[in-house]
Amino acid sequence: QQINKNGNVYLNQENTKRDFLFIDDFINLVLKILNKFPEGYNVYNAGYGKSNSLEEIIKIIEKITGIKINILYDKSIRPNDIIEMVADITRVTKSFDWKPQIDIEEGLRLTLKNFTIPIF
User: Do 67 and 25 meet the contact criterion of CB atoms below 8 Å apart?
Assistant: First the structure.
């Protein structure tokens, strides 16, 4: 939705990286946890276990849609902004015999395929 009619998208910082997990993988994880509910208090990280830069995400969207997207950067500094986030999924993978199945490209492809609001 952020892509405007000129094909521009605005990002805050150039090197921002995030760990993206497709919703179907998350739901499968929740079901596994509910079916093998551990005793006591436990903390598990959920994610794909790999980070992608926002620029990589834009390039994948370009590839899928065939739309050229111009990346523009907001040079203002946001205090306490974290440049890279990636989940350590080692514990949840071992505890529930779970691994994400849908990578970022396939997840974006599925999302865009089912996206009902036109981008332009």
Answer: no
